[in-house]
Amino acid sequence: MLSLQKILTEMKTLIIFVFLTILNSAVLAQQAETIKWHTFEEAMRLNASAPRKILIDVYTDWCGYCKTMDAQTFGNPVIARFINQNFYAIKFDAESTEPVDFAGHTFVNEGVRTGTRRPAHQLAAALGVSGYPTVVYFTADLKMIGPVAGFYAPEKMEPLLHYIAEGRYQSVSLEEFERTFVSRLSSR
Question: Which among 44, 63, 104, 149 could disulfide-bond with 134, CB atoms 3.0 to 4.6 Å apart, if both were Cys?
Fold first, then answer.
């Protein structure tokens, strides 16, 4: 017959094992629910073999709303999962000094050459960016759907992402789409 001490020890071991298993699963699930940000080159290569819409998050290092949107919106696992499944996501620093090849053109930051303080990259202007953060959406064949400027909380971003991913922007207004949209944010 097992002693009470031995039973308690085995139960304690089992409880610790179950706890660690659940904790490990939660950590892995959280890691799986972050946005896979691609370089322009990676996104174009992936898009050539498996076409998807493109999402470009245009930000600057000094932009507080950009950082908040990264943490709250892009850091939301429901938003991250949807973006990963439906878009190739690119993060682009509008003040980058690196040339960027995109949609058959090479864009540079001319302000670096002229000594301009916080110069904007040519690509930011070509994308129609006038403030930060701005998310610019493209079709899989690299036709611009449009830039969307400003901070978007997860509750505002989610219907917009579905609206674009599902191609509903071609037939109904965003306001009309939002009236019947059912959020998945609460069903994490």
Answer: 149
